[in-house]
Amino acid sequence: MDELLKVDKTFNESMFITKVNNIFVMLKSCVMTRNLDRVRHFISLELEKEYDEIINRLKEENEINMYDELNVKDTKIKNIEITEEKIIITVNLTSRYMDYIIDANTKEYISGVNDHRIEKENTLVFEKIINAKNYGLIKKCPTCGASINLNKSGKCPYCRNIFDAENYDYILTSIKEGV
Questions:
Q1: What is the number of domains present in the chain?
Q2: Alpha carbon of 160 to those of 37, 60, 153, 175: distances in Å?
Q3: 27 — pLDDT class (breaks 50, 70, 90)
Q4: Exposure of 149 by Cβ count < 10 A (0-12 exposed, 13-18 middle, 19+ buried)?
């Protein structure tokens, strides 16, 4: 942790864990709503493409993946790696939820676990570039300068540009379930 604080003086473990938990829950919620807009700015382009494919498959099959009673039981930093270009933090996150598929039109159950929560172990990887820019208290759209509420959406309400958090903060680059 000392090495991390040398290269990222703003790092706060409890705030980071809260961010991890929120991004995890938002990502699962976005899969349920079949729309990644609320989380795009917190994930890498590669992960965004992966989840867009998942959502598109669900839409093609006219299905909704439900994560009822979703919560995070525990989150721990597993590893911190510092390279010349970035900080890579691997996190173990234990979640609990019902995981099942329903028909998008009829809302009828198709498959999965819908009668009790199951506990799942997840490995998440976050990255931040060394010497990332500080976006300050008020986040501004880099395209038009309008204020952006990153907790609501990373999309500018005026020019529709997606805020690029990768140049400012930790972003989720990988998520593996059952690891």
A1: 1
A2: 11, 26, 10, 27
A3: very high
A4: exposed
